[in-house]
Amino acid sequence: MAKSTRVPTMALELLLCCLTASLPSVSAVTPWPDKVISWWYASGSQESFEGLIAQINQPERLPLVTSIQTYCGHDVSDDGRIIMNPHQGNITACQQFFPELVKLGVRPELATGAGNCSIVTYRKLWADTTESPQVLLKAALAVNASGWNIDLEPQGGPDTGKPGWGCKGGSMPIGTAADAKLFATWLSAVRAVLKPHGIRLTADVASWSPVLTEYATLAPAVDRLQTMSTYNGASLNQWDSSFQTFIGSIPTSAAGIGLGVWNDSKAQWWETAAGAKAKVAQAIASGVRELACFRLVPSAAGGSDDTPASWWWDALQPFHEMN
Description:
Strand content: 15-25%
Number of strands: 9
Number of helices: 10
Shape: globular
Strand order of the largest sheet: 1-2-4-5-6-7-8-9
Helix content: 25-40%
Order of helices and strands: HEHEEHEHHEHEHEHEHEH
């Protein structure tokens, strides 16, 4: 999800320089499987990563974790550049954590911060189809990441002189379908530099955004679109409406169905065991090849209050077992 950006300091600029310096050629990562269960994790300290390893490194859970997408400090500056922002993750912790994931057979994926969520800022970034794709490539190679998840969420923001500032919604411009074409062009340029290295590209989309709802425009530019509009729903019918709109707009092979696996303690349909099983069953019946789960939250003591609840792992098992 989106978070606000900070103006980079000199130290951050130096860190970015180090990360984007010329790197030796490395071999491509192992080809991605067609069927994926990806998980979002809001990274923090090395200690929090250790808790995550303990959470997933269990015989009945590990086969249900294909990849983990996480912040490692990469963000979008107000002038539309990829920068390092310590409020968007810890690059040092990621450098230590990613090899541990690889040992478990889990693919680490980097995720962008959303910057200030201003469409004005995003247009500047998307106009750069030369430098920024190379920055993303070098960042992935620097930590041996298997993928990049692009989570840019154009939101209105309050009218404070900086459109979209703070990612809080408001009355300022949030983009149009024409911006989706600009976004798709940029994504295509990014994918072109990532693909030779076996690094996949995903992008988060949603029906609430005039830009991100242009599924058919964006799908050809990435390996998978991951929709946030199927995170929850008051009933199967309500959830299925968003589901059908999404998969009806793009090839099923390009669809990543977002599942909200947190618990807000309101006991709504989407956060019950029955709801989880119904959503996974619908995805299987429709031929979907990726479930994008939001999100993993290990408890401090590794106890029963981990997110997701234990029954979510049971609900995902049929997807893992299907051909």
